[in-house]
Each structure stands twice: as structure tokens, then as C-alpha cells.
Design brief:
- The chain has about 575 residues and is α/β, with parallel strands linked by helices.
- It folds into 3 domains: about 5-15 and about 460-570, OB fold (Dihydrolipoamide Acetyltransferase, E2P); about 65-260, Alpha-Beta Complex (inorganic pyrophosphatase (n-terminal core)); about 355-455, Diaminopimelate Epimerase, Chain A, domain 1, CATH 3.10.310.30.
- The protein contains 21 helices and 19 strands.
- A hairpin with a 2-residue loop joins strand 16 (about 515-520) and strand 17 (about 525-530).
- The longest helix has about 35 residues, at about 315-345.
- The model is unreliable at about 1-10 (pLDDT under 50).
Length: about 575
């Protein structure tokens, strides 16, 4: 699609700094490629011991759960509930992090105590986080303790309401706390100012995992009692895009190991329906497993996702996975049609090209995919984007930002037009009256135009290191694979090779993509550049080019060869 290529035409390249002295020192101790050592140093791995710890993660390196503020209070309250035979409700959000958290905690508790139930709020009937309907459900079912996972830190009024009904809360959350905290029995959140827990970037499922770890220690249960849910924790870490460093990397590393060796029936069923037969990586969890879990909440009821993860029988798991698979098909169709419709609207809007924002609205668009559509539009028109639809008597929408712009502050500046809003730097949601759509859009454009810098409207490619083509080999690729699992703060390395030439065999394939065959110093390397066809004229000029890429494996006719996954190319100027 030509519109997708427009974003490729203009990107800034930033090559990260090479700390030569530290890199040479690390190379001397590791005896591996200089460029890889440079990447490790950039990521804080600047000596042999740190490298050993990084490349050989150990579960023994996980922090003690008792370092987290209120952990003892949380364990004591759960023990009390068990001793007094109280009913416990495990409550979680409707996304991947929330549903995996609930599935893991519910299974852990039900294995040691029978009076446990779970609850997932309906995305459209109840909205995000702790809900009044959920608390009322607890009251109607004689539940006196709610453990909230991946939500609750901002639910001050609702937890007050629960307290009046004699229902206690233990909040397990990872979102940034406000100044006023809810009146819960215990709050487990490493981001609290006075929490001394060493690692601050756990996802919701990760916080739940620490509570299970503490309970297991307190109850003298074997490690398997909580380690058994590492596949769910890894799925949550992957889907929630938390930094892939510290404890997250250890949990994801061993969680992936479990996914590949002995996954729960639910994940196994999703893998089966997705046609995955090879080794699973974080990217598979992000792009194959997570969308199917999220689709349950986007298109219907996310409770299905929990039912899938707690199901032990594979045949039944396949049935439930089929429902999620169907939801995801519906989600993809809605996503594709709305994106196409939105792009057509923008292309026909003569005033749009001079704007710094993208705001589109159609009352019939599906509420469950407007956030995804906003991200798709940014791939084509790189600017702060809001996609709005009708929801009952109101208009609701999702917003997504570009890398260097604080979206939440811009929306906050337009709050007079809104009935409600929430979010963070990169993403937000809002509701408004239908008559406020145009005034809000105009105000949002005005605020963004006045505050956004020109460079924030140009997508940036971060390049880790320069590589000569002669250095691309299986040994290099094998070490890159050991940097897995990849994610924020530990992304798949991006390389640049300068002054390379098209050897004459590069060609356009399927009208949109380029099959690269390039050479440098008589070394030839193949590559694929998706949606880059309109850059083919640069190759035909037979001038030296600079090429930015990551490395992966191309499997064809039972042969495996390293190839470039090309991100961008430019004519060489130095």
C-alpha cells in the first residue's frame, strides 16, 4: 500500500554512541565481535560478570518478595481469610496482563483453598479497572476479600465503597500511584514512593507472581506451586511492553522456556490454532498469542481468556481457544476496514496535510479497535492521533502519540471539552458529548501545534552499531539470539552497513517489497525490505548506499540462511 510507504520516506537515523574504551575492555574479556560488545556496553553490560549474569539468567537472582511494601500485610490477610473460611475474589483487568494475572492467582489459591472465585469486568458495560458491578457481585456472593490485579491503585472511591460493605481489598498494581492512595488492607506496587523493592518495572502479573512467591514461602509450599505460572507471566510481560531488563528479563526467559517445553493447555491451544510448530519467542507472544487474548475483551467478554488459561483439558482448551481465535478474526476485519475508511477520509481532507494532529470520527466504528486503528494511522501519518466513535449517547475514543510527545498533557489542556479522560505519555482515552467533537478536535490541534517540536513529527530509527558485511555469520547471529528475550530497553540489535552496493540482482517482489542482494568488499548478503518498493530507484542508481537492518533467518527449501531484515536505506554521503 503506497500510504504505508510514505512513512518510510522520511526517517531520522540516530547511531548510538560507541564507548570505545569500555567496549574494547569487554571485547578483550568476552572474545566476541566488537559491535556486539558495543551494544552490550550501551545496555549497561560492561564487564565479564555482568555479561555472565545477562547471558545466563538464574531464577535465584529474583528479589525476595518480602522487600515489597505491604507484602507481609497482604500475606497475613490472605492467611486470615483462609483460616476464617472467608470467600476470596480474584479481580483483574480485561487485557492480557489482567487476564493472565487472574488465571495464575486463581489457580494458585484454588490449589490450596476452595473458597475462591474470579471476576473480569466487561470492557463496555463496566470500563477499565475496579468496578462497582464487580464489588456488588462480591457482596451478593458473600465475598469479604478482593485481590485486584493490574488495577486498583487509582480506585480510591470504589475501594471506599467496598469498605462500607465490609469487603477488604489487596491491590496488586504496577501503574503510577496518585498522591491519594486507596484505603486497601495492602497495596503491592513497587512504584510507591516509600516502597524499597529494587525493581520498579514489573507488570501486573509480575506483581501477582511476587505475592504467590511470598505466600508459597509463608505456607512452605514447593517452588513449583508458583513457578508453574511462568508461561502466563512471560505472556503478560510481552504483551504489556514493560522494560525487558532485570526481573522482567529473568521471568520472561524462564517463562519462554516453559512455553516451549511445557505450556499450560490454554497457551498450547492458542499455539496449535495459530499454526506455530517451531520455537516460540517473545515476538510470537506479542504478535500471535497476545492479540487473540486481547480480542476476547475487545470484541466480547474477556472472561473467556481466564477460562482458557485455567482449563486443564486440552480438548476443552481448543474449544475455548477457537472462540478467541474467532474474536481475533472479527477484530482484524474491523481493524482493517476502519483503518481503510479512516485513511480515505484523511486523503480526501484538503486541510489535513497542514495539521500536526490526526483526529477522525465515525459513529459506527467498533469501540474495541479504535486504539489499534490510531496506531495504524501513525504508521502512515506520524503525528498525535485520536480515533473517535459513538458509544451510547456519548462519543468515546482512543489516542496514541508519537515517541517524543506527551499526549496526556495535550488532552489535559483540552479537558473543558471532555466528560472524562485518562492515560499516560503515549496513550489515552476520553469521552465527550457529540457536539464537542469538532471544538475538541480544533482545540487539540491548537495545543499540539503550539507545543510539539518539528523533530517529534519525524520517526526516528535508533541504530545500535555499524557492521561490516564480512562480520555477518552464524556465530554472530547465535550470540544475538542469546540477547533474547527482546523488548523495551533490550531491543533486537539494529545495525548499519555503510557504502554497500546493489550487485544487480536486487528486485521488487509482490509489488510492495524489495529482495535485496548487496555487496561490500566482495562479500554478498541477501535481505528483505517489506513495503519498501518505492525506494528501489535508489538501488538502480548504482551508487553506494547506507543500509539499516536487523538480522534474522530465512528458511527456504530446508535451508537456513542469515538475512538482513531491512528497515531503511539512503544514499551514502560520507
Amino acid at each position: 500500500m503506497a500510504t504505508t510507504n510514505r512513512a518510510i520516506m522520511n526517517k531520522r537515523w540516530q547511531i548510538l554512541e560507541d564507548y570505545k574504551e569500555k567496549t574494547l575492555s569487554l571485547q578483550n574479556s568476552l572474545k566476541i565481535n566488537y559491535s556486539l560488545c558495543s551494544i552490550l556496553v550501551q545496555r549497561g553490560i560492561d564487564n565479564y560478570d555482568k555479561a555472565k549474569q545477562f547471558f545466563r539468567p538464574q531464577l535465584t537472582e529474583l528479589h525476595s518478595p518480602w522487600l515489597m511494601k505491604d507484602m507481609q500485610k497482604a500475606v497475613n490477610r490472605i492467611r486470615e481469610a483462609i483460616n476464617k473460611k472467608e470467600r476470596i475474589l480474584v479481580f483483574g483487568d480485561y487485557d492480557v496482563d489482567g487476564t493472565t494475572s487472574v488465571a495464575a492467582m486463581y489457580q494458585f489459591l484454588i490449589s490450596i483453598y476452595s473458597e475462591v472465585d474470579y471476576y473480569i469486568p466487561h470492557r463496555y458495560k463496566e470500563g477499565y479497572g475496579v468496578s462497582k458491578l464487580g464489588i456488588d457481585y462480591a457482596k451478593d456472593n458473600n465475598i469479604t476479600l478482593i485481590i485486584s490485579l493490574d488495577c486498583g491503585i487509582k480506585s480510591v472511591e470504589l475501594i471506599d465503597y467496598a469498605n462500607k460493605l465490609n469487603i477488604d481489598f489487596i491491590v496488586c498494581d504496577h501503574h503510577l500511584p496518585d498522591t491519594i492512595l486507596p484505603s486497601a488492607v495492602a497495596i503491592l506496587n513497587a512504584k510507591q514512593i516509600d516502597c524499597n523493592y529494587p525493581f520498579k518495572e514489573l507488570c501486573g502479573c509480575g506483581v501477582g507472581f511476587k505475592l504467590m512467591q511470598a505466600l508459597a514461602e509463608n505456607l512452605n509450599l514447593p517452588d513449583e506451586s508458583f513457578m508453574n505460572y511462568l508461561d502466563l507471566v512471560a505472556t503478560a510481560i510481552a504483551a504489556d511492553i514493560v522494560p525487558m531488563i532485570g526481573e522482567n528479563r529473568i521471568l520472561a526467559y524462564f517463562g519462554l522456556k516453559k512455553v516451549n517445553e511445557n505450556p499450560c493447555a490454554g497457551i498450547k491451544a492458542l499455539m496449535s490454532l495459530s499454526g506455530i510448530k517451531k520455537e516460540m519467542f517473545i515476538t510470537n507472544l506479542v504478535f500471535v498469542i497476545a492479540p487473540r487474548i486481547n480480542a476476547a475483551g475487545r470484541m466480547d467478554d474477556a472472561k473467556k481468556a481466564v477460562q482458557l488459561f485455567i482449563e486443564k483439558d486440552f480438548t476443552k482448551a481448543i474449544e475455548i481457544a477457537g472462540l478467541l481465535h474467532s474474536d481475533n478474526t472479527d477484530r482484524r476485519e474491523a481493524d482493517a476496514s476502519i483503518t481503510s475508511e479512516a485513511l480515505a477520509m484523511l486523503e480526501n481532507d484538503t486541510a489535513f496535510k497542514n495539521k500536526k494532529t490526526t483526529v477522525v470520527y465515525q459513529p459506527h466504528w467498533h469501540k474495541g479497535v479504535v486504539g489499534i486503528v490510531a496506531s495504524r494511522l501513525i504508521e502512515t501519518y506520524y503525528r498525535p492521533t485520536i480515533v473517535l466513535t459513538r458509544s451510547g449517547d456519548l462519543v468515546s475514543g482512543s489516542a496514541r502519540s508519537v515517541v517524543k510527545f506527551n499526549l496526556y498533557e495535550a488532552i489535559h489542556a483540552c479537558k473543558e471539552y471532555l466528560l472524562g479522560y485518562g492515560g499516560h505519555f503515549a496513550a489515552a482515552g476520553m469521552t465527550m458529548l457529540p457536539e464537542q467533537v469538532i471544538p475538541f478536535s480544533e482545540a487539540f490541534e491548537k495545543v499540539v501545534a503550539a507545543t510539539i517540536t518539528p523533530d517529534a513529527l519525524i520517526p526516528e530509527i535508533l541504530i545500535d552499531a555499524e557492521l561490516r558485511l564480512r562480520d555477518i555469520n552464524k556465530a554472530l547471529y547465535n550470540i544475538i539470539n542469546q540477547i533474547e528475550p527482546f523488548g523495551p530497553d533490550n531491543m533486537r540489535p539494529v545495525f548499519i552497513s555503510k557504502k554497500v552496493m546493489n550487485n544487480g540482482f536486487s528486485k521488487i517482489v509482490k509489488e510492495q517489497h524489495i529482495r535485496f542482494v548487496i555487496k561490500q568488499d566482495d562479500i554478498i548478503v541477501n535481505g528483505i525490505g517489506f513495503n519498501m518498493a518505492e525506494k528501489f530507484d535508489l538501488l538502480e542508481m548504482n551508487e553506494p548506499i547506507d543500509i539499516v537492518y536487523s538480522l534474522d533467518i530465512n528458511e527456504w527449501n530446508n535451508e537456513s540462511n542469515i538475512q538482513m531484515k531491512v528497515i531503511d536505506i539512503k544514499l551514502s554521503f560520507d
